Amino acid sequence: xxxxxxxxxxxxxxxxxxxxxxxxxxxxxxxxxxxxxxxxxxxxxxxxxxxxxxxxxxxxxxxxxxxxxxxxxxxxxxxxxxxxxxxxxxxxxxxxxxxxxxxxxxxxxxxxxxxxxxxxxxxxxxxxxxxxxxxxxxxxxxxxxxxxxxxxxxxxxxxxxxxxxxxxxxxxxxxxxxxxxxxxxxxxxxxxxxxxxxxxxxxxxxxxxxxxxxxxxxxxxxxxxxxxxxxxxxxxxxxxxxxxxxxxxxxxxxxxxxxxxxxxxxxxxxxxxxxxxxxxxxxxxxxxxxxxxxxxxxxxxxxxxxxxxxxxxxxxxxxxxxxxxxxxxxxxxxxxxxxxxxxxxxxxxxxxxxxxxxxxxxxxxxxxxxxxxxxxxxxxxxxxxxxxxxxxxxxxxxxxxxxxxxxxxxxxxxxxxxxxxxxxxxxxxxxxx
Length: 433
Known about the structure:
mainly alpha
């Protein structure tokens, strides 16, 4: 493939990232705006919502997103190979797996209060967090778009239902997204990619589950990592202030991550498409373009955050104590934004190429063998508090990012294209259909 054609393809990748970023931004806004409004209700409410959103919903998010990400690899590579009819079959298999997984995860929400108490959270935070229920993620993980800020504002400012009102509207917003997406898929606008419901979706489900489990492990280890940051803050002496301040920082980090997640989705699609189409050099060049773009955007956001370091905490909370802790954490937050802008793009390469199992091992070592223990040592025995916990855990993210860089740099993309061809043939064959 010539240089001009590769350049055109990579412009298409950046264009593809735009809608993905917008979608991610809208999705994240559902929980983020609710959390922001909770911060203006009170410190306890902010801490409780942060625990619910990070621990309860975070656990569910990691599992559901991971169990659904296998379809990204298969659909992307099948599309690149021109096998459009298989996209609908893979989607239906993913729905079956996600619905079963969602039914199991439902019990985590039902028993949220005793679960939080068992893992050592304070009773006041646990009771407030346990009162929130957010069940609407289910089918959405494989078909996305949404916007609900006005409804959430009404729940807090007009009905005066407080946390319960925000949680109820958040739940309704997710279901609204799911219904619209199903209408879009069933309307026939997807062409050959949606062949209608078929019994092929039930064929070789166990093989699909195994592939999904590898993806789930990779995604869960990433999603739960920063969930653990909020969880550990709940064990500090002044837990409400620590969790509330950290929730403000993770809220901002989440907003910036919506851009990185958009790049993650775009590079996943591009790499899987190009490998499926046997264009390894274009896949490699796409990775370079996407990682550089993600880094530059993360750098600009970090600089803006440091410039407005004194002003932005007031947007998220009323407590002066919380604002002071947020101010002290801002330089670390800015550094984390840069690192977390690069890491999702590299993870997207892993999903597109089908490296989920390998990256799961990398995540275990970097996050849970290195990052978490270091954070706990700095935070507790060395009395650095929430800042020490974050120092250790961001060190784990840096190590993981460096290893991903090395893996991508050493990749034989011709070999990966050959592996993709074999994967497509296997899942297209009788065992896959």
